[in-house]
Structures are given as structure tokens and as C-alpha cells.
């Protein structure tokens, strides 16, 4: 109808190059541009940008959300840095990271190397990846039962096969974080394995062939050829894993509620406690900023260190 | 595997050199068997917790707490499931979680496609900067923004309502925008140009031409968003107080807390909570894993 008529007009060279037509079209196009990004832009503004600015402001006030806001400058930060709770949270988070990240990466790397060479890849992938789609709550509940001191499968097997009384996996002060780390490794091994599998499949066979012709054995092949070529993937997996481990919460909340005592009290638990149990939003925001700073620093350190061990193909 | 590829790609002379360096057949078969064994042990370690959950959910208390362990329940106590569903309103939690997830997924897919199209194809002032801003937000850990977000929700009066769970996820997904934009850039521009020249406006172009071509990234984004929303716990934990509004994850946590010695019931509750996702996973595993690998590689 009118489109046809317009098409005829627009199709003619004169109409296309006419200045007012072009400008009108560009303006209407730009308007469409804004309309299309409007929902996400509103979301960005309300749920990312404003909160990002606000958290820095909140970290410098004292407020419970209801009463009056009092500006306190850096007091919250000083309080946090000198608070026992923060020190405990930091220590626990670090220990958890040190166990779960290298452990997880090594196990998933070995698994990827193995699965890459056998048939039945799909079944292995299905099984190893299953925990990734289950919620942390469900994983925690399952493992709470498995690690139950008296009737959990682990201790029951230890008792009936080896006649040893299994330890309190989640109740012993020194075992609780390693136990949680192992659950975490179990849960995340599939994810990293998929990443490494994709990385391995991106390595052209020609490299391995050249090495084999030169007489390299399996071991040398791995260390001198596979690993360096896999290092970008390894780097990516490590960065993601460390960032993730600094942010662990759901699993711990359901498994131990930060306990026993404060033995599994990690940074995000500390944040949760300050903000949503005590409603002291000032210190909580300061803790959030500190956590963010830590993540930033560690990520930057990793990026700086990558030139020492990550080989990118030119 | 490398051997097989090599024999296809390498000339005859090299095949002899290969044969010289090939380890003896027996040794190779042994290694391969060992590898399979280790992988199977690993698979057993992965599967056992799930199996144990299902088995326990069907046992009597006596069998669940037996030493040595009872592997197969006898008889199958389906009653546990009935009891679980009656103990806490799991059904209601399901309804809640389902409709929250559906709204979030639908909204995410549409708004991210729209924004992705705009960033990919439409020229408007500030496009470059805005896109960079979107990308930059990917680096913000959610713990940084959740506290002010909570306060915003308080001021909006959305605490203890599903809106608090739906709105942020439905309206903001920088990763989704990024994904869609990258994909749309790959669509041949001639298709749109033809339509635009024929007088169609951007809206028509988007709905009639672009959207039908976005099946693959929308599947990936949809699955990821579905999983993320269904499995979410932290947001539900801080925003919801009334049990009638609880999501499946919250209900499960509640169950664990209230019935913490009735492990057969708790396991039944877990199965109830986990089953839909597992079914979706088994059916769509290829797409799910591809979607997640896509995440990793794109980044």
C-alpha cells in the first residue's frame, strides 16, 4: 500500500541521496536505537550503575535502612580491617581457595585429558557435568547426608569396610573447610573439564605428530607440547575459578551456616551477616568494597603473571 | 586417537616412521584399560551422591540408618514423597519458581535480542560508550551491588514479593546483550537492507527478519538463564520471608532445617527439587554444555 509507493520513491537515486530524507531517516533510526536498548538500559541504570555508585557511598555511612543516615567517612573500613570477623572470613576464604582451585583444576585437567582419548565421551560428559546443573542448595543437602557423622555413607562405609570411626567431616574445626572444598571440587569438575576439552580440541594434531616423529614420549608430549598450548585455557579457567571461590556462599550457608562456630565463615557470609542479619549497611558495604578490591587485585596479579607462563599462538 | 588422524593425513613414508616409535600393542591396550578404569571410577564418584539421594528417598528410616549400608531399599517407600509434599508446600514453591523463571527467561531473551540488535546494527549517538559500559558491568561481582539493590527494593516496597526476584534478572543481563550482539553481527546485512529499502521500519525488521534467525543463541541464553534462575538461592533468601512465596531452593533449605533428622524425607524433597532440572539436562545436555562452553570461549 503506502509502502509500495514509498518504495518507489526511496528506490529512486534522487530520493535516497536527498539530504532531508537522509537526516530524517538517521534521526528516526537513532530513536529506534534508543527504544531497542531501553529495557536493558533501564535495568543497567537501576540494578547496576546506581547500586555501584551507591555502595561506595554507603560504605562511608552508618545506616540501618530505616533510620537516619550518618556520614562516618572511613570509619567502617577501619572497623572492618581491625575486626576479628573479617580476619576470620579472609583466612577461611583463602584456605578454601587454596584447596579448591588447584585441586579442582588439576582433577578436571586430568579428566579432560583422559576423556579426550576414549570413546563414550558423551556419557562421561553427561555424568561429570551433572552437578553443575543442580543447585548448590541441593548439592549441599545431598552432601550433608553423605558426610553425616554417624549415618552418612562415607562414615558408614569406613565403619563397615575398614572398622574405623570416620571423622566429623563438617563438625571438626580443621576438617570443615577441606570437606567443603572437596564438595566444591566435585561440583565444579565437570565445568572445568568441558572448558579444557574445548581447549584440547583446539590444539591441532600437527603439533603432537611433529613431536612424536621427533621421538617424544607421552610425558614430554604433555609437558612440552600440550600444556603450553593449553595455557590460555588454563589461565582462563584459573581466573574464573579464583573469582568464583572468593564468592562462595550458597553451598556453605546450607552445609554449615558458617560453622561450626565461625570455622567456615567466609567473606560473602560475612557480608550477608552484616547486611541481612544485622542490617548494618555501612560496614556491610565496606566489606563488599573490600571483597571487590581483593578480587580485583588478585585478578590483576594473575593477568600480570600470565606473561611468564601463558603461551599465545601468534 | 591421534594415531588415527595421522594415518589419514600423513603420507606412506611417515607411516613407517610412526610404526617404529609406536609402543607395543599390549602396553598400549593396558594403558587404555587403566584409563577407562580410572574414568569409570571417577564417573562412579560423580554419580553416587545422586544415586544415594534417590535410594535414600525410597528407604524406611531403619534402612536409611543401617550399618552396614542398605543399598537397595526394600520395599520402595513411595510414601516418603507423599509425606514430603505434605510437610511443606513444595507444590506451591514449584508454581512460584516456574512462573518466575518463565517470565525472567522470556524477558531476558527479548530485551537482550533487542539491545543486541541495536548495538549491532543501529547507529545512534553514544552507542560505542554504552556498549563498553555494558561490558564493564560484567566485571562487577554481584555482592557489590546487592546491598544497594536491597535498599532500592525496600524503598520500592518490593521486599517479600516476587518482583524483587524478577525485575533485576528480567531487565539486566549484560552477558546476554553481548552474546546477542556478537551473533547478530554475523547475520548478513543484506537481509535487513533489502527490507529497509522496501520501507520497513526497524521494529518490523527486528521481529520478521532478525528474530527468526536467532534460534541458536536464544537457545543457549535461554537455557543458561533458566538454570540460573531456577537454581538461584541468595536473592530468594534475602528478599522472601513468607513461606507461600518461597522458591523451590528456599523450600528445600527450609526442609533441611526443619526436618533435619528425617533424612529419607529430606532426600525425597531434594529429588523433588532437582528432578525437573535433571530431566531438562538429560534431554538438552548437548545444548546446555554447548551454551556454557560458548560462555567460556567467548570470554
Walk me through the structure.
The complex is a heterodimer of chains A (314) and B (299). Chain A is mainly alpha-helical and 314 residues long. Chain A has two domains: 57 residues, no CATH class; 233 residues, MetI-like (MetI-like fold, Orthogonal Bundle). In chain A, helix 4 crosses helix 14 and helix 5 crosses helix 13. Chain B is an all-alpha fold. Chain B has two domains: 56 residues, no CATH class; 215 residues, MetI-like fold, CATH 1.10.3720.10. Chain B has 16 helices and no strands. The longest helix of chain B is centred in the C-terminal third of the chain and has 36 residues. Chain B is globular.
Largest sheet of chain A: 2 strands, antiparallel
The N- and C-terminal alpha carbons of chain B lie at a distance of 29 Å
Helix-strand makeup class of chain B: mainly alpha
How would you state the average pLDDT of chain A, rounded?
A: 89
Into how many domains do the coordinates of chain B divide?
A: 2
Largest sheet strand order of chain A? 1-2
**CATH architecture group name of the largest domain in chain A:** Orthogonal Bundle
Please report the distance between the alpha carbons of the first and last residues of chain A.
Answer: 56 Å
Number of domains of chain A: 2
In this structure, how is the largest beta sheet of chain B organized?
none
SSE order of chain A: HHHEEHHHHHHHHHHH
Number of helices of chain B: 16
Strand content of chain A: under 5%
Rg estimate of chain B, integer Å: 26 Å
The CATH top-level class label of the largest domain in chain A? Mainly Alpha
Amino acid at each position: 500500500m503506502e509502502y509500495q509507493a514509498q518504495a518507489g520513491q526511496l528506490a529512486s537515486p534522487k530520493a535516497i541521496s536527498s539530504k532531508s530524507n537522509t537526516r530524517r531517516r538517521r534521526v528516526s533510526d537513532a530513536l529506534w536505537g534508543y527504544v531497542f536498548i531501553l529495557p536493558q538500559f533501564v535495568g543497567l541504570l537501576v540494578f547496576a550503575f546506581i547500586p555501584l555508585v551507591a555502595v561506595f557511598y554507603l560504605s562511608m555511612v552508618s545506616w540501618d535502612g530505616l533510620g537516619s543516615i550518618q556520614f562516618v567517612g572511613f570509619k567502617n573500613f577501619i572497623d572492618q580491617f581491625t575486626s576479628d570477623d573479617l580476619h576470620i572470613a579472609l583466612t577461611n576464604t583463602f584456605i578454601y581457595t587454596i584447596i579448591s582451585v588447584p585441586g579442582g583444576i588439576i582433577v578436571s585437567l586430568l579428566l579432560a585429558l583422559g576423556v579426550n582419548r576414549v570413546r563414550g565421551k558423551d556419557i562421561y560428559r553427561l555424568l561429570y557435568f551433572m552437578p553443575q546443573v543442580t543447585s548448590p542448595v541441593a548439592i549441599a543437602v545431598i552432601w550433608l547426608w553423605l558426610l553425616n557423622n554417624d549415618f552418612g555413607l562415607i562414615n558408614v562405609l569406613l565403619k563397615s569396610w575398614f572398622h574405623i570411626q570416620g571423622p566429623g567431616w563438617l563438625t571438626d574445626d580443621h576438617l570443615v573447610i577441606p570437606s567443603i572444598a572437596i564438595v566444591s571440587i566435585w561440583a565444579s569438575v565437570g565445568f572445568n573439564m568441558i572448558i579444557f576439552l574445548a581447549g584440547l580440541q583446539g590444539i591441532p594434531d600437527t603439533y603432537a605428530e611433529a613431536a612424536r616423529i621427533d621421538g617424544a614420549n607421552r610425558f614430554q608430549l604433555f609437558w612440552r607440547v600440550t600444556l603450553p598450548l593449553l595455557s590460555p585455557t588454563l589461565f582462563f579457567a584459573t581466573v574464573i575459578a579464583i573469582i568464583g571461590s572468593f564468592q562462595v556462599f550458597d553451598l556453605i550457608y546450607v552445609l554449615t551456616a558458617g560453622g561450626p562456630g565461625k570455622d567456615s565463615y567466609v567473606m560473602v557470609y560475612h557480608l550477608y551477616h552484616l547486611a541481612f542479619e544485622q542490617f548494618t549497611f555501612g560496614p556491610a558495604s565496606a566489606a563488599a568494597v573490600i571483597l571487590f578490591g581483593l578480587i580485583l587485585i588478585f585478578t590483576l596479579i594473575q593477568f600480570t603473571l600470565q606473561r611468564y607462563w601463558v603461551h599465545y599462538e601468534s | 586417537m591421534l594415531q588415527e588422524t595421522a594415518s589419514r593425513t600423513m603420507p606412506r613414508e611417515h607411516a613407517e616412521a610412526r610404526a617404529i616409535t609406536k609402543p607395543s600393542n599390549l602396553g598400549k591396550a593396558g594403558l587404555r584399560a587403566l584409563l577407562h578404569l580410572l574414568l569409570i571410577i571417577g564417573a562412579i564418584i560423580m554419580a553416587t551422591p545422586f544415586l544415594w539421594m534417590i535410594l535414600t528417598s525410597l528407604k524406611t528410616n531403619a534402612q536409611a540408618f543401617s550399618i552396614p549400608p542398605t543399598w537397595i531399599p526394600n520395599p520402595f517407600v513411595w510414601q516418603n514423597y507423599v509425606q514430603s509434599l505434605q510437610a511443606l508446600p513444595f507444590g506451591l514453591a514449584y508454581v512460584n519458581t516456574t512462573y518466575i523463571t518463565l517470565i525472567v527467561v522470556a524477558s531476558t531473551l527479548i530485551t537482550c535480542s533487542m539491545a543486541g540488535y541495536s548495538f549491532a546494527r543501529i547507529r545512534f549517538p553514544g552507542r560505542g560508550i554504552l556498549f563498553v559500559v555494558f561490558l564493564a558491568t560484567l566485571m562487577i561481582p554481584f555482592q557489590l551491588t546487592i546491598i544497594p539493590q536491597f535498599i532500592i527494593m525496600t524503598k520500592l516496597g518490593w521486599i517479600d514479593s516476587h518482583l524483587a526476584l524478577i525485575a533485576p534478572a528480567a531487565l539486566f543481563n549484560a552477558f546476554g546483550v553481548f552474546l546477542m550482539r556478537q551473533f547478530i553481527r554475523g547475520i548478513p546485512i543484506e537481509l535487513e537492507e533489502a527490507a529497509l529499502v522496501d520501507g520497513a521500519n526497524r521494529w518490523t525488521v527486528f521481529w520478521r527478519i532478525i528474530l527468526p534467525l536467532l534460534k541458536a543463541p536464544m537457545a543457549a541464553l535461554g537455557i543458561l538463564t533458566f538454570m540460573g534462575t531456577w537454581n538461584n538461592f541468595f536473592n530468594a533468601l534475602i528478599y522472601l520471608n513468607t513461606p507461600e512465596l518461597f522458591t523451590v531452593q528456599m523450600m528445600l533449605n527450609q526442609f533441611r532445617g526443619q526436618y533435619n533428622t528425617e533424612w529419607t524425607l529430606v532426600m525425597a524433597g531434594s529429588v523433588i527439587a532437582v528432578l525437573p532440572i535433571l530431566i531438562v539436562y538429560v534431554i538438552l545436555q548437548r545444548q546446555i554444555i554447548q551454551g556454557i562452553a560458548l560462555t567460556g570461549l567467548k570470554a
